[in-house]
């Protein structure tokens, strides 16, 4: 067996099996650190043994057996040592078989890592480490913090789970409305940052989008009837469908200027079908924010041209979204959409009023939307100034060059890029 | 597991609160205790006098005696006004119990360190 073949086999087993193996071993150790160590040892054993014994047919089962045995050995060795932390609480372990047999072990892991009693950054970091199996240095790089900082953050979060008694279980159906948002927020944050990075040289961070996609797929596989989960996966698919058209060379292409023939039709069909299912599965008039975001993305994706977009429908969806999840960023997006229905002058008034909201202070979206409206009103000098203001408030270089190019074009002197 | 529910509220001198309001507050806690008893949950707790009655010992300096000072350790707009200690299955259970507990402005849920485990 060649080195490449082995590397591929281990990588494949890691991608498919890490979370399943860890989730199972956690029940044996009832200690997150010990389980992590045992799983890592199992993968090390795979690297050592598979070249000689061949890759097992069921790598996840092989890894689970090895990891469980390592964990039990470690438990025997450490029995005499004083335990520093209380054990993870695994409800129902002493009870007879669970009522819900199809429940996937990974789901316990997801909901434990995404418990609302953990801060959002801690939830994201833990999910990347424990559910996606990303090594700590990689998680640190994604967060743009040093490895010791990330290691400390992960340790603190794991310690809180055990010390505070966060149970290792899937919430009951009636608890899901409370608990699901904390998990979806993790995926959504990864997706947003992956789509347009908050800083840096490149527009997005594809590795974050990949991770968000995997997580959304796992959640949809495990909870195929949850409207909000379907909505999130739809948003993931629709963003992926349009992602290649967002870049021309190194430059950003905004939605209004995108070459729609470059959109991936198969992904759009898939995403739109998911979005429709998400809306159908929502209680009438009570769709959640993820289903509504997906519906908005679907309307954009189905429009043959920017001009032919069903803007009235988009404004109506934003109205619902604002009722479900009030946010000044959503108000800004609605104002931008409404400008295509009621005209840029009315929208400009709305955006000017919104600019006073302290929660939007320093958010480059405000001057960027204002700039677009001013341009459409023929107020080019003011539009250029607004584009410059927007450029100064973003730390994403690709976005900044786009905004500066717009400003230059309007100032008359500059030649537009792209 | 044992958890402390720490109840925070603006300082209140219950001796000067009109009797109807005081009775209403006491009734809320009686209802919470009835809930704990109905679920068979071990509990204890106490209400505290306002933070204006607090006295704090602070180190005066290296190798010096602790200094007696007036006021709570940290001045807050809302102060610790009372606490319960309850036995709960896990944090989710403790949160559920705390949702039934009358609160002024917030309830901090803190696991107790179990020296025996």
TrEMBL record, chain B:
It holds the Pfam family YCII. Belongs to the YciI family. This is YCII-related domain-containing protein. Residues 28-114 form the YCII-related domain. PANTHER family: BLL7171 PROTEIN, BLL7171 PROTEIN-RELATED. It comes from the Bacteria. It comes from Jiangella rhizosphaerae. InterPro entries: Dimeric_a/b-barrel, YCII.
């Amino acid at each position: 067996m060649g080195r490449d073949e082995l590397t591929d086999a281990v990588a494949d087993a890691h991608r498919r099996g890490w979370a399943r193996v860890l989730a199972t071993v956690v029940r044996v150790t009832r200690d997150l650190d010990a389980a992590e160590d045992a799983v890592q040892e199992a993968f090390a054993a795979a690297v050592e043994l598979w070249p000689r014994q061949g890759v097992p047919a069921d790598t996840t089962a092989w890894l689970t057996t090895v990891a469980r045995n390592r964990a039990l050995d470690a438990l025997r060795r450490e029995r005499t040592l004083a335990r520093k932390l209380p054990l993870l609480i695994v409800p129902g372990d002493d009870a007879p078989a669970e009522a819900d047999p199809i429940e996937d072990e990974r789901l316990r892991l997801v909901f434990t890592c995404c418990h609302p009693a953990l801060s959002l950054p801690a939830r994201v970091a833990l999910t990347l480490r424990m559910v996606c199996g990303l090594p700590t240095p990689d998680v640190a790089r994604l967060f743009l913090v040093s490895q010791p900082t990330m290691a400390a953050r992960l340790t603190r979060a794991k310690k809180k789970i055990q010390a505070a008694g966060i149970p290792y279980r899937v919430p009951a159906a009636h608890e899901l409305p409370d608990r699901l948002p904390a998990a979806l927020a993790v995926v959504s944050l990864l997706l947003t940052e992956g789509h347009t990075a908050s800083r840096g040289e490149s527009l997005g961070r594809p590795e974050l989008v990949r991770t968000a996609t995997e997580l959304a797929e796992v959640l949809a596989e495990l909870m195929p009837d949850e409207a909000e989960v379907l909505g999130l996966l739809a948003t993931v698919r629709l963003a992926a469908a349009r992602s290649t058209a967002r870049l021309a060379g190194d430059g950003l292409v905004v939605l209004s200027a995108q070459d729609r023939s470059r959109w991936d039709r198969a992904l759009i069909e898939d995403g739109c079908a998911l979005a429709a299912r998400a809306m159908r599965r929502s209680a009438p008039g009570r769709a959640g924010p993820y289903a509504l975001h997906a519906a908005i993305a679907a309307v954009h994706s189905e429009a043959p041209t920017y001009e032919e977009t069903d803007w009235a429908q988009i404004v109506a969806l934003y109205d619902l979204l604002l009722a479900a999840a009030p946010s000044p960023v959503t108000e800004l997006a609605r104002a931008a959409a409404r400008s295509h229905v009621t005209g840029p002058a009315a929208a400009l008034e709305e955006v000017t009023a919104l600019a006073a909201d302290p929660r939007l202070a320093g958010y480059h979206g405000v001057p960027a939307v204002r700039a677009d409206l001013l341009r459409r009103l023929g107020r080019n000098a003011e539009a250029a100034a607004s584009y410059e203001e927007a450029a100064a408030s973003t730390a994403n270089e690709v976005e900044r060059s786009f905004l500066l190019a717009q400003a230059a074009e309007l100032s008359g002197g500059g030649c537009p890029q792209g | 597991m044992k958890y402390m529910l720490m109840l925070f509220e603006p300082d209140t001198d219950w001796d000067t609160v009109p009797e109807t309001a005081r009775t209403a507050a006491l009734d809320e806690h009686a209802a919470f205790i009835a809930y704990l008893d109905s679920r068979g949950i071990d509990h204890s707790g106490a209400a505290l006098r306002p933070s204006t009655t607090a006295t704090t010992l602070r180190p005066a300096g290296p190798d010096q005696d602790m200094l007696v000072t007036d006021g709570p350790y940290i001045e807050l707009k809302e102060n610790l006004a009372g606490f319960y200690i309850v036995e709960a299955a896990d944090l989710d259970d403790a949160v559920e119990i705390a949702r039934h507990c009358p609160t002024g402005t917030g309830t901090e849920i803190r696991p107790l360190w179990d020296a025996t485990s």
